[in-house]
Every structure is written in structure tokens, then in C-alpha cells.
Amino acid sequence: MPSLLPPALAHALAALLGDGWRVDAETLRRYGEDASRRGVPAAGVALPERREQVVALVHACRTHRVPVVARGSGTSSTGAAIPGGGAVVVGFERMARILAIDPADRIAVVEPGVLNGDLQRALAAHGLFWPPDPASADTCTVGGNLACNAGGPRTVKYGATRDNVLGLAAVTGTGDLVTCGSRTTKDATGYDLTHLLVGSEGTLGLIVEATLKLAPLPSARRSLRALYADVAAAAAAVARLMRQPVAPAMLEFMDRHCIRLAREVGGADIPDAGALLMIEADGDAATVELATRALADAARGPGLLALDAAPDAAASEALWAARRALSPALRTIAAGKINEDVVVPVSRIPDLVTGVEALAAEFDLRIVAFGHAGNGNLHVNILFDPDDAAESARARSALPRLFALTLSLGGTLSGEHGIGTAKRDFMAQAFDAPTLALMRTVKQAFDPDGILNPGKVLPPAAA
Amino acid sequence: MPSLLPPALAHALAALLGDGWRVDAETLRRYGEDASRRGVPAAGVALPERREQVVALVHACRTHRVPVVARGSGTSSTGAAIPGGGAVVVGFERMARILAIDPADRIAVVEPGVLNGDLQRALAAHGLFWPPDPASADTCTVGGNLACNAGGPRTVKYGATRDNVLGLAAVTGTGDLVTCGSRTTKDATGYDLTHLLVGSEGTLGLIVEATLKLAPLPSARRSLRALYADVAAAAAAVARLMRQPVAPAMLEFMDRHCIRLAREVGGADIPDAGALLMIEADGDAATVELATRALADAARGPGLLALDAAPDAAASEALWAARRALSPALRTIAAGKINEDVVVPVSRIPDLVTGVEALAAEFDLRIVAFGHAGNGNLHVNILFDPDDAAESARARSALPRLFALTLSLGGTLSGEHGIGTAKRDFMAQAFDAPTLALMRTVKQAFDPDGILNPGKVLPPAAA
Q1: DSSP string of A43-101?
Q2: Which cofactors, if any, are listed as required (chains A, B) (predicted)?
């Protein structure tokens, strides 16, 4: 297959990157896909080892107006990492060093390609952790976490990626290396470009270094499992849990369908109920006891069917088994799955779940909801058989209605997956025209020629 | 005095704002000053009651290329709220409503003119608070807090203003009303314009509404006072305190000069020491006991001279009296005070304090340091007699050296006061040229004609 790249650019990148420049078909195919199962082959794959190479390759691509798509390990479920035709994909696996861990200042300085899980293991040796804990932690990169503002169960207490980044070095669409933020946890110096770059999905800059805010690793955890008669009772408990001063370290929700699936398909030891909350306290050996008591008190209320406390780590594992059994169970019963991550204000969780059940009935689909209740961030999973064309079409038709429902409840499209191409065309429902226009102007400020990950996040401007 | 404004603009604004348009000399003078004690009279003062008026007035000012300067209550110490010549100042005291307090979702929706202290009182009735707690809370506005990313002692546990804002409505320099962020605590939807607007000091937009993230009001607090032989011992204790899982609710530092001033001038009951830490635990009645114990354990270490725990609220008040005595004491001994808010990584606090003492010796000045140790955010106060021209000049000369010292320690210019005009010309030392240039481009994206608070935050571009 002839390269889609201008020959002069291909030569320049080969000279710049040596062994780190790939144009073989297998590599182009592999770097053209992500977990969204979309994508077209890359036109070239760059594997830089140093930030100077990133600067040079952006300059070269800009000269030829060739798109540049940053990539971590391709775990994006929204298509944020897939190239369009003719793009150079920049893989960061050779920029994966932990440059510094500074326990006294509670910061780490890393390159974007380091895996979240590898970082956590390195930090644990110092009694520290970095809060973002996506399910893909063992395979996803910190750069990818930064790009899509990844979260996870711990976000309810410790914040998502954006809340745990202090500074960034990034290469903009003009090939400029900018250094924003600081090494300090408080900063009122100039424009906050750091948090703007986080969640911009590679459309504003290629992150080449991050200064991360760390948290002390709790020495003790304790889990509670609460079953409720219905979602309203569980949501009221979530509001009570979030209003008292002991922050839960995790606060996870499962709807009644998920509970049944976890038992019937996943084999979890759990009775039927209208809704389930998994609640975790963390701290040290002494404080965790009292924290658990405070959380148990808040979990109690009208509609509580059962409240089980895990006295030790093994019992805690058993309680969390139901939550863990869920994803494999979903995979078993349906080969097709649209996994969304909508967010609503906590008080609207019952309306979201009721609305989702109505959508399931209307479209004759299995739709389940579970996730990060303390943030109102629910994974609504639309299940379907990809070999059943009619059911697949119904699943696709239900999606816009899910987003419309979420927005009508004062919520937003994504809590932790980002927008990519999957949700791009719903952005005009989430934001009014002047706000979208300003986002486009900001994009232009960072990337005047539109070469960075084009077609992601922002919908095409109306003609 | 004839108005400096184009007559057509003055007429349009008078028609738009009615009684909310002021051009009398006393009002122009008053709205031309802030706590920086700089300023020139405003050319006109607009007191809008509705966001539509803000939109219209920006449009009108843009037409005439007249600067627009947003103003809360003028407590800025950096000159961020002072107009240049010929500017319209927009005072937000008529847009001071608390539009919603939603305890279940832990959010409040407010107009920018509401006083921080008024908001806190309204929230306390619901068992909630908004974390930013600047010393000026009773007189400063939420809009001003947003504009300069205000902090305070509680930032160490609860974050500064930027960390506690979920969404904003703002009018940009084009007169567009944009609505960014969400009502949810997790958001990975599009570009984060919300946190970019926070701390932009009115140079990117005029905030007309904010959705604030609230925290549960702790029902119990407990204080500790730790005295150390020297700053290094205190800083090591700060690092220990920040590395264990119980976050201190406050963690304040005083250097040896402050300790002596608090006693000798402020009358506080406190012995001499090399450094002092005030440590607060919060929680409920049960958890606060254990939290206090964990913090006391962490406070203990080499160089600890005394550790006093306050058994009750009255004793706690007595311990904090020393900290509170400090500001009046400083005012008593020196009429002139340059109060900076530099930030360094926690581990560099000893180097900062040592460096400050060296500056004091070199410039023959009294310089003291105190503040928010958990964030490395120290108020370095350069004291001088304004009637002593030579001493005043030395104070001004010491300032650039303080900033150079801070930056050399990996710190940054401002932790909670912002940049304004006071620190604007040091921005080129804090950021490299491409990063400053990108900030300018971002400014242009929000405010293409440069009418919003011109001359603040960013230094003039090099010719």
C-alpha cells in the first residue's frame, strides 16, 4: 500500500525518528484502532523518545497540513484516539518514564506513556497513590487519562484526573512547547491552561510531561453493602452520605437488573433488591472504624433492606465480588454493548434510572445502569446482539434519547470517557451556540491549522 | 469634570442602566480604587441588575472600544479591579442573589455580587459551606473570589476557588453569553472553560452566574499548636502531616518573627520558637478525636518544642489568637506592608524562609513569613515606613528578588491573590515565551479587541 503521506514528510519523520517511525501495514492498522472498535489505518506511526522529537514532528506535520493524533494505549471507548485518513499517529510508549516521585511534596513527574497501574505500584512503595482509577488502569496510560479526564470509583473522594494534575508540558498545534501550571497545590498565577488541556483529547496539544498531585495511601479500608427497595431510596441514601463530613472513598450503584445479572450470570451471592450501594471507607486503622460507622449511619433510612459490613479484607472482597462480576456478566449475555458514562446531579439519579427503564421498554432493549453514584456518574449500558440488525438499529436509536434525557435532568454527556467522535454530534445539545463557538475559537488559539486530532470533541461548524 | 467616555456610549449606558449608571465624581473615584491603593477614577460606573444588561453593556463598550473592568467589592491587593483611564467599571452589587441552594446535590447557584460571608451563613443553615475562606470573607464577593482564584486556610483540605466551582455563565469580550461546566461534580464533556475563567481576573469574561460545589459543614473541630526549634523541623512536620491519610482542615505556619510579634505586639500567650504550626482537625464528634490524634502523631518529630492540644472550643480560640493577633500587630509596627502570597513546594519552605531572612538582612528590612503551610503558600510581608523614602525604595527593590527566589525554588508568584498589575511584569519570569504567547492568544480568543480589564495579568508583549 503506498503511503498516504507526502513523501517529503515521510522522509523527514523517518530521519527524525529512525526506528521510531513505522509505516508497515500491521502497525498502521493497530494504531488506527481503539476500544471504540472504529478507526482507519494510520498513515504513519511515530514513536518519539524525547519531547524535542514531538516538537519537530508537529512542525513537520504542520508544514504539510497533515493531522497528528496522540495515542496512549488505545483504551478510549469514544474513538478519541483513532486517526482519520492520512494522519500520523503519535504513540507514547517510548516516553513512559517516571521522572520523579517526591513524597515530601506529594507530586510525581511523569512522561505520558507510563501506565496508570505501573505508576500506582511505584507510588505505593512511598505510601502514595494517584487518584484516577479507571477500570483499565493496568493497560491505560497517564497521558490517556489526562486526555479524556479519566475518573473511576475513587473520584467521589479524591477527584478525577483534572483535579489531580498540577502542571503540564505540551506541544501545541503550532509546534510550540508550552509549560503550564506549577509544582504547587495552590496557584493563582495567570491563565489555567493546565486544566484546559486535561480532557481536550489531544485536540489542543500533545502532552509530553505531567506533574501529578498525589494522595496518601490509606492503610485501612472497610466496605459496606446496602440494598434498597428502589432507586429513590438508594439515591436518598447517596444524598445523605454526601452531606455528612466523612467522605466515602467509593460509592458505587447498581440497578435491579445489574443485581440480578451479577447473581444469575456472575454467580455473586446477593439477593434481589431495587438498588444496591457499595460504600467504602478509608483511612488508618483507627479512623476507618469510625468512618465506617458514620457511613453506615448515613446509609440507613427509608427503604433500606439490608446493610452488610465487611469485618475484614476477605469479607470486603466478597462484597465487591458482585460489582466485579458485573462487567463479565454483561459481556456474556450480550456481545454488543454501548457503554455510556452520563452524569446527572445526585438528586436526579432516580429520574435517570426510571427514564432508562422507559427507554428500554420503548425500544425493546436490555439497558442496565451502574456506576459512580456519589458523582451521579452512571454507566448506562445498552445491550444488543450485533448480529441482529434490527436490535442493533434500535440500540443506536435509543442513544440520542439517553443523552436528551440526561441533559433534561441537568446532567452532562460524559463523566470520565470523554467525547471523541462517539458523542461529538451531541455537543450542540449540551452547549449553546456561543459556548460551542468559543470552544472552537479556543481550539484555533492552540491549533490554528486544525492539525491536532481533527474531528474529535467538537462537531463540525454549521455551514 | 467632563466624561472621558464617547457621548454616544454614555447615553446608551444611561438608557440601558437607568439608576444603575453613575458618573458622579465620588462614585467614579470610589470605583477606581481597590485594596492595592492604586487606581484612577472610573470613566463611568455600571451597576447592572441582570445578565442581559451585562451583555448589552459589553456590546456597547466594544462598539466604542472602551475598556470594561469587572469589580466585586474591591478587596484585591494586586490592582486587579482598578480601571485604567477611560474605563467603565462594572460593579456587581445589584447582582448579589443566591439563586439556589440544593443540599441533595451539594451545589449553590449564585450571582457574582453575593458576599462570601453572606453565602456561608445561608449555607450553614443547610449544614454546608463553600470552601474558599479568604481573610476578607465578610467583605469580598464570590465573583471576586472566582476572578482571582481565592483561597484561605481551608484550601489545604478542601481546595481553593477553582477546585470548588462546577459551572459558570460569563459574558466574553465579544458580548457573548457563554455557559460552561455543569451542575455535576464530574465532567469530561468538551473544553474546560470554567476553570480557565476562574483566576482570569476579569480579562476573559465577566462572570454573571456561578454553580458552586459545596462541602458538608463539619460538626466538630479540634486545634493543635506545635512549636519547633526551626523552620526545617516545622517543614518536615508539614511533610509528615500531608503524607498521612487524615487531611488537616487547616495547617498554618508562622516564622519566628511572627511568633514574637504576635506576643510582643499582639499580646498572644506564646513562647519564642523557631517556627509555629497551627493544625486543625475537623469531622464529627467521634471522628475528630481520632483525626486529632493522627495529626498530633504526625506533628511529633525532631525539633518539636511543644505540642498543645485544645480540649474545647474556648481553648482552641486561645490557640488561634496568636495567629489572629498577627495582622493587627503587623499594622501596628509598620504603616507600609507589601503582602505577597508566593507558593513553593512544601519541601522548599525552609529555603524560602532562609532566603527571605537573607533578603531582610541585605535590604535592611523587616520581612516576616506566615500562612498556609500545607500548600506551601506563605504570606511574605515586607514591612516599611511609607514616609521613609529610602526604606520604601528598599522594600520595592526587595520584591523582584523575592519572586526570583520563589521561582528558583520551583514555586510560583501567587497562590491566592492573583497577578493584577502588581505582579504582571514578573509573569515573563514565571512562564517561558511560548507559554506567555499562548496565554495572549487565549486572551484574544475570549476578547479579540482587548476591552476586558486591559493591562492585567499579562505583561505587554515585547515590542
Answers
A1: SEEE--SSHHHHHHHHHHHHHTT--EEEESSS--SSSTT---TTPEEEE-TTS--EEEE
A2: FAD
CB A345 within 8 A of CB A410: yes
Q: Is A180 left (phi over 0), alpha (psi -120 to 50) or beta?
A: beta
CB contact under 8 A, A419 and B377: no
CB pairs under 8 A between A and B: 306
**Rounded Cα gap, residues B416 and B379, in angstroms:** 10
- Alpha carbon distance B215, A3 (integer Å): 56
Q: Is B133 on the interface with A (CB under 8 A)?
A: no
Helix (H) or strand (E) holding B396: helix B389-408
Tell the burial category of B299 from Cβ atoms under 10 Å away from its Cβ (0-12, 13-18, 19+): buried
Determine contact, residues A386/A392, Cβ cutoff 8 Å. Answer: yes
Note down pLDDT in tens along chain A; length 463 residues.
456 899 999 999 999 999 999 999 999 999 999 888 778 999 999 999 999 999 999 999 999 999 999 999 999 999 999 998 899 999 999 999 999 999 999 999 999 999 999 999 999 999 999 999 999 999 999 999 999 999 999 999 999 999 999 999 999 999 999 999 999 999 999 999 999 999 999 999 999 999 999 999 999 999 999 999 999 999 999 999 999 989 999 999 999 999 999 888 888 888 999 999 999 999 988 889 999 999 999 999 999 999 999 888 888 888 888 788 888 888 888 899 999 999 999 999 999 999 999 999 999 999 999 999 999 999 999 999 999 999 999 999 999 999 999 999 999 999 999 999 999 999 999 999 999 999 999 999 999 999 999 999 999 986 4
Distance from CA of A262 to the nearest CA of B (A): 26
Q: Which position has the grid cell 483529547? A: A201
Report d(CA B245, CA B457) in Å as an integer: 36
Q: How far B419 CA sits from the closest chain A CA (Å)?
A: 6
- Phi, psi (degrees; rounded to nearest 5) at B165: -125, 130
What are the structural domains of chain A? 7-91 (3.30.43.10), 98-216 (3.30.465.10), 218-324 (3.30.70.2190), 334-447 (3.30.70.2740)
